[in-house]
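Students often ask why we bother predicting the structure of a whole assembly rather than each chain alone. The short answer is interfaces. A chain on its own may look different once its partners are present, and contacts between molecules only exist in the joint model. In this exercise we take two input lines together and write out one structure for the complete complex. Read the inputs first and try to guess which parts will touch.
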Amino acid sequence: MKILVTVQDHSIAPRFDQTTEVLIATGEAGLLQGQVRTIILPHRSAEELSDLIVKEGIDCLVCGGIEDSFYRFFKWKNIRVYDSVIGAHAEALQLALTGALRPGMVLPSARAGR
Amino acid sequence: MTRVRVLIVDAEAEFTGLVVDRLHSWGYEAAAASDADEALAVQASLQPEVAVISVQERPVRALELMGLLQASDPALKVILLLGRGAAGAGVRGMEMGASDCLPLPLDLGVLIDSLRKVCGRSHSIASEEAEP
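Now the answer. The structure tokens for the assembled complex follow.
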């Protein structure tokens, strides 16, 4: 499973369309396969980020808020979307790998930061 | 080992800021410039070994800047970052002496590999511990 997480600082980027950095990881059953890649986008653009997601063959998107049109597009492309997730990107990635992530989750790292 | 000095040129400060920050975490000495004037000023102060120049909306200007930077320092290595539709400029850049061309969005690992290749060093960082 190939996972893309939108990133801002060390957390999940709160808005999909404002994202300029993403992590791409491949793994299964809680285990990473290979290196986590860091991709930096030249500017904020939901369209260009969507192009990247399709081009990379992403199976699972982890993000914060996302426009409904993009959400529907990814669903149509059979990409699993975990949106409105709040917390550290590393924690979200680990939960996505184990299958424990859910849309709208507020991760323990976010609660600890309050 | 001395840290490799890298100049990043792109009009988007958010993009260059992120790249500079990530390169610092990999042990590089990096600085950003948003236009040609700033790039020449940074070149004078930083004396970079590598310039990473973004080629997007104005490819001619990017290639002109590459020529200016190399005129100031003939030993300067150049890596071009190619946006959508900039492949032609990439070809011209390679003909002008660019060492490598990488696609945008930028894969940080690919940039690190390219910097190592261009600098002819297996490790371009001050110490192994600097790697994140």
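Check your guess against this: DSSP finds four helices and six strands in chain A.
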